[in-house]
Amino acid sequence: MSIDILKEDIKSGMIRSLYLFYGQEEYLKRYYVDCIEKQIIAKETRALNRLVMDGGIDIRKLSEACETMPVFSDRKLVVVKNSEVFKAKKKPGGAKGKSKGSSGDELLEYLQNIPPYTCLIFYEDSIDKRIKAVDSIKKNGLIVECAFQKPAELVKWAIKVFKSYGKDIDRLTASKLVDSSEQGMTEILNEIDKVALYIGDRTAVTGEDISRVCTPSIKSRVFDLTDAIAEKNAGRAFKLLNDMAALKEPMPKILFMIARQFRQVLELKLLTEEGLDLGQAASKMGITPYAAGKLIKQARHFTQETLKQAMEESLKMDVAIKTGKIKDRIAAEMLIARFAQD
């Protein structure tokens, strides 16, 4: 994987002249930019040898930034954020066309001739792999996707961060924290910091600490809502839905996640009935042990047939919303009313 090649570049100190970082995980993009900066520029000269550009590229300004010699340093760093040159531009009428101008021939030529003393990093949210500029970086540098990490990797990372703070957390409690947080590593780190501050001099982190301190994500709230549906507690389910609506969570997103939750409950139920233990089923599904524990409790309240009906009903509601036959809030309430009643 390209991310492993990047790690080796950093470890060996053999930093290339050209990189493209893209993906949804902002924490990883920032982290690897910082690692490269620390590797090629001494702390006392970083202000002189680090330049960040944001927005559309002016090839003249980019070349000036890259061609200027480093100051009291062998190398310098130029970071270009949100350049948009790696996305197809829309033609009038909405059709997509090839990127032109600064992302055309001039840029393609320049990407082949980055000075050896410059490290140029493009920092993007997403890219179109059909764009010629992407091919040029593939040939002359390294492209690294910084995607959201899998739950198991996040749990390992959370344990490692707590350890660096002098705190101990077991795998199950760490998985509870990950499942209670939003998906991004920055958000998880914020929750880790809150817990570390909350427990003070105490070294052991408990599940109760997570419950008291961490702000529940929409994923965590949907878990609770599905718990209420499984327990046939319609009142609590409606309250949780109202709470999410009050927090301005988009109703289509809530409906999607409820449907996803029903699918995961069914999948876990099928896997365990096939003879897999909970750990094996969790690994196969790519979820944390904590999430698997909650799902299996929910699974005991549903038959396979009920779960299949819930998924089918969710799909029907989605179609009805998109065709304007029903409002999203009413659809969510109808779904809860049907499956949370005795």
UniProtKB/TrEMBL annotation:
GO molecular-function terms, A-Z = DNA binding; DNA-directed DNA polymerase activity
Keywords carried by this UniProt record: DNA replication, DNA-directed DNA polymerase, Nucleotidyltransferase, Transferase
Q: What is this protein called?
A: DNA polymerase III subunit delta
Q: Which organism is it from?
A: Anaerobacterium chartisolvens
Family per UniProt?
A: Belongs to the DNA polymerase HolA subunit family.
One Gene Ontology term of the biological-process aspect is:
DNA-templated DNA replication
The segment(s) forming the DNA polymerase III delta N-terminal domain are 19-146
GO cellular component labels: DNA polymerase III complex
- Catalytic reactions on record: DNA(n) + a 2'-deoxyribonucleoside 5'-triphosphate = DNA(n+1) + diphosphate
EC code: 2.7.7.7
Could you name the domain of life of the organism this protein comes from? Bacteria
Provide the DNA polymerase III delta subunit-like C-terminal domain boundaries: 220-338
Q: What is the enzyme's class at the highest EC level? A: transferase
